[in-house]
Amino acid sequence: MPTSVEDVCKLYVKDSTKVANCNQFLQAVASKVGADWGVDLSKAFSGNADTIRGRFKEAPFIYIGPFPDKATAFATDGKFVVGGLTHGEMTYIGRDNRRRTATMGHVVVIAPGGPSKGGEIELADGTKQKVRGGYPYCYQGAAHEIYRFDHRTHVDAVFPALLLDRVEYAYIDIQKKS
Fold first, then answer.
1. Which domains does the chain have, with CATH numbers?
2. Do residues 148 and 125 lie in contact, with contact meaning Cβ atoms separated by under 8 Å?
3. Collapsing DSSP states into helix, strand and coil, what is residue 16?
């Protein structure tokens, strides 16, 4: 039996060379999953987070849209589910009326087992961060060290709160090729 997407993520999220960047983490996971399942995912996951997120409506992706419950259900069903926003989508006006300009997009691998629980999580530097819950769990790489989790985390911990309902999801239906 090929390795599940989540098992690949569990392995790679502990590798410091793979978690320093979200798209490189996603590419490493996709490469291993593709090799194990006999599908070429290299084109789908090439480029940076903006490019990958921009392909969500193109084959081999099947577009889910901004529906976290559906993303969780597809991940639980064994699909290779990803979520993300481009840097343009991550540029927004905060509650303080100040503009937040993102310099890069962000992509994550959605994990089965959600929706997430609300409460508080611990960031990599030990700081506590509130999470509202109700969103998918995920694995990711991150440019900012405090968001380099070595385990599954929450979508609502890694995207700005005001943008959570805008996160786009898509999946690839991986099946062993005969």
1. 5-172 (3.90.1720.10)
2. no
3. coil
- The residue to which tokens 């099947």 are assigned: 62
Beta partners for 99?
A: 93
- Rounded distance between C-alpha atoms, residue 164 and residue 170, angstroms: 15
How far separated are the first and last CA of the chain, in Å rounded?
Answer: 13
pTM flag (> 0.90):
yes
Residues 6+ apart with CB under 8 A from 137: 72, 110, 111, 112, 113, 114, 116, 152, 153, 154, 155
Q: At what angle do helices 5-12 and 22-37 cross, to 10 degrees?
A: 130
- Tens digit of pLDDT at every position of the chain (178 positions): 778 999 999 999 999 889 999 999 999 999 999 999 988 999 999 999 999 999 999 999 999 999 999 999 999 999 999 999 999 999 888 888 989 888 899 999 999 998 999 999 999 899 999 999 999 999 999 988 999 999 999 999 999 989 999 999 999 998 754 3
Cα atoms in the Cβ-side hemisphere of radius 13 Å centred on 97: 0
Structure tokens at 148: 């380099």
- The 3-state DSSP class for residue 130 equals strand
Residue 137, strand partner residues: 111, 154
The span from the CA of 3 to the CA of 50, in Å, is: 27
